[in-house]
Specification:
The N terminus is likely disordered. The chain has a five-stranded parallel sheet with strand order 5-4-3-6-7. α1 crosses α4. It is built from six helices and seven strands, in the order ββααβαβαββαβα. The radius of gyration is 19 Å and the shape is globular. The longest helix is centred in the first third of the chain and has 19 residues. By secondary structure, it is α/β, with parallel strands linked by helices.
Length: about 190
C-alpha cells in the first residue's frame, strides 16, 4: 500500500508536452510546515485576535473528574484554564496534527508537571479516540482549519458520554449573523 507521500500529481498542459510533478501534501504536513515557525510566536501573538477562549472553557462547564478532549490543542494554551476547572482530578487529552505545536504542548505539560494529560498526534476525524468516554470536547480556533469539519463533528459527537458537550469558538463570516446562528443551532442540536 502506498502512502500519501508517494502520490504524485501530474499536470499536463494541452498546448505542451512538458509535465510538472508536484507532491500532494497531507493536511498534517501542511499544518506542520505552517506552524514550524508560527509555533514559536503563537502564544505571544494570538491573544491579539483569538478571542473567546476563556468563555469557551467556562461555558463548557468542565468539572473535576471530567474527561476533556481538546481537538487542535496547538501549544496547549488552553490547558491551564482546563486544569483549573478539573482541580487535579480528571483527564485532559490534547489532539493536534502539527508536530511543532505538539512539541510546545509537551513542553508546557512537562513544565507544569501535569500527570493527567495525554497528547495525541493525528489528523482528527477518522475515528474517535475515547469513544463514549468524554464529558467535553472543545475546538478552539481549530475546526475551521479542518477540511472535513462535518466528519470531525460526527467523530467528536461519538467521543461523548450521554449528556456530554461540544464547545466551539472559531472564525466565522458574518452574513447578517444568519449563517453563524444556523451553525450554532446545528451544533446545539447535534444535527451533524
Amino acid at each position: 500500500m502506498r502512502s500519501r507521500r508517494d502520490v504524485r500529481l501530474i499536470l499536463c498542459g494541452a498546448s505542451n508536452a512538458v509535465s510538472r510533478t508536484h507532491s500532494i501534501r497531507t493536511h498534517r504536513e501542511t499544518m506542520s510546515r505552517y506552524y514550524r515557525f508560527q509555533s514559536i510566536i503563537y502564544d505571544i501573538t494570538r491573544w491579539t485576535f483569538l478571542f473567546g477562549r476563556t468563555l469557551l472553557i467556562r461555558e463548557s462547564l468542565i468539572q473535576p473528574g471530567f474527561t476533556v478532549l481538546e481537538i487542535g490543542c496547538g501549544t496547549g494554551r488552553n490547558f491551564n484554564p482546563i486544569q483549573t476547572r478539573l482541580q487535579g482530578r480528571g483527564r485532559l487529552i490534547g489532539v493536534d496534527c502539527s508536530e511543532p505545536m505538539l512539541s510546545r504542548a509537551k513542553a508546557r505539560v512537562a513544565r507544569a508537571r501535569w500527570s493527567n494529560v495525554r497528547l495525541v498526534s493525528c489528523e482528527y476525524g477518522s475515528e474517535p479516540i475515547q469513544r463514549g468516554e468524554a464529558d467535553v470536547v472543545v475546538f478552539s480556533y481549530s475546526l475551521s482549519m479542518m477540511p472535513n469539519w462535518q466528519q470531525v463533528l460526527r467523530c467528536a459527537k461519538a467521543e461523548l458520554k450521554p449528556g456530554g458537550r461540544i464547545g466551539v469558538v472559531d472564525f466565522c463570516i458574518d452574513h447578517g449573523d444568519s449563517i453563524a446562528h444556523a451553525f450554532a443551532d446545528l451544533l446545539r442540536f447535534n444535527q451533524f
